[in-house]
């Protein structure tokens, strides 16, 4: 398997180059980004297609490990290929073979020291909460909450998580990192023109299930099940049980990656 982090030449001695690929995908039918044994993932589907095009299976490294059912409007990954491979026609070739729920947007060569994940300075996620006129088409891309939510209270919660905090209590046990301190630069809830709610959060990094737990906690605050005063306790005590439910994955979108 080709890995740009370790090789610059292929077996024939040809110079290799590192490519940064920008894609978008509907995560409904995938078990997240990262390859795993219990189901098809976006990473595996992408590797299958790139292998068909370049004749070798690349080690594709993503900018994030999105969960099963989570979508991406903008997702970046890097991989290694022969320097002679044409950049211009590569995106068209990908889109002619990729499943219809994954779409290649752009591909360009990047320096050898670039890393899709570790070079990212931050990410923005959006979460869609459906409040009006539920239908089968929205069910793939939003969380339907029939009761009327209080966006003002939810925004008061958002204000309390902006800044640098230890988000251990807002993450799930599946986290794979020891450092759970993150800096949230922006967080807000807004009503759309049709009365639904968009939750937006931007940070220098995110923990496992962090965004979905933040959304669930915002809803808990709106419902009166969680008090605003409890937020400081969640940070201080690192107590996941004090936070809200983990919102379902279908409403979550990776919206922007900053480099």
List keywords for this structure.
10-stranded mixed β-sheet, 10 strands, alpha+beta, 28% strand, 2 domains, 5 helices, Alpha-Beta Plaits, 259 residues, globular
Write up this protein.
This protein starts with 15 loop residues before the first strand and ends with a strand. The chain has two domains: 16-110, 2-Layer Sandwich (Alpha-Beta Plaits); 122-258, Alpha-Beta Plaits. α3 packs across α4. By secondary structure, it is α+β, with helices and mostly antiparallel strands. 21% of the residues lie in helices and 28% in strands. The protein is built from five helices and ten strands. Strands 1, 2, 3, 4, 5, 6, 7, 8, 9 and 10 form a ten-stranded mixed beta sheet that branches. β2 and β3 form a beta hairpin. It has helices at 42-54, 90-97, 151-161, 210-223, 230-237, and strands at 16-25, 61-62, 71-82, 102-110, 122-130, 143-144, 163-166, 181-191, 197-203, 252-258.
